[in-house]
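Let us work through a complete example step by step.
Step 1: write down the sequence.
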Amino acid sequence: MKVKDELFGKEVLDADIQIVGKVMDIVMDRDTFEVTDLVIKKTGFSEQIKASENIVPMELVKVIGDKILLKGEDDI
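Step 2: predict the structure and record it as tokens.
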């Protein structure tokens, strides 16, 4: 899998199917080259108010497809 093509720019949705933002960067383990975290930038009106990024550990990702779905409380 080419990480850049597969993850960058994908919309991230929370468990309630609300848009959290888009993947703007990733964090990788230097030894295993495994993606450990996604850097999510808020999109839309909230992005214009202040620049904000969230770091989401891969353990909280439920599904990666056309969009990235995060786990809810029931999944954790």
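Step 3: interpret the result. The CA atoms of residues 14 and 75 lie 12 Å apart.
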